[in-house]
Amino acid sequence: MDPVANPDREHFPSGFEVTVRGFRERTGIDALEWAKRCEQLGVGEIVVNSVDRDGTREGFELDITGQIAKMVQIPVVASGGAGNAAHLSQVFLETEVNAAIIAGILHTGQYTIADLKKEIANAGIAVRK
Q1: pLDDT (0 to 100) of residue 1
Q2: Domains of the chain listed by start with CATH number
């Protein structure tokens, strides 16, 4: 699911609209409505990739990611926006996500997986060794 912020609360109560085709097309569907429907259809997990945060390295979009994780009973994965180790800890501490996707901070060599795991563990979050 690729939500983009939409302030039209009458049509998008969550404040986010689902996009498709590489973020190029808006669907007119509220992100929470779509997450509920996906769960009803039997999907195994939902990856929330915020259009507004993807590639920014400003941190995960905690608002819609948190709304979705709280509402559904299936695993939710945060994606888009991680810029440092603190962003990983933050998404786990402030939302009910089950996992998070990172890319750029590893590709640049800024962090290793071991560095990130250590930071997350130091924040009191259970992490695989």
Answers
A1: 63
A2: 2-122 (3.20.20.70)
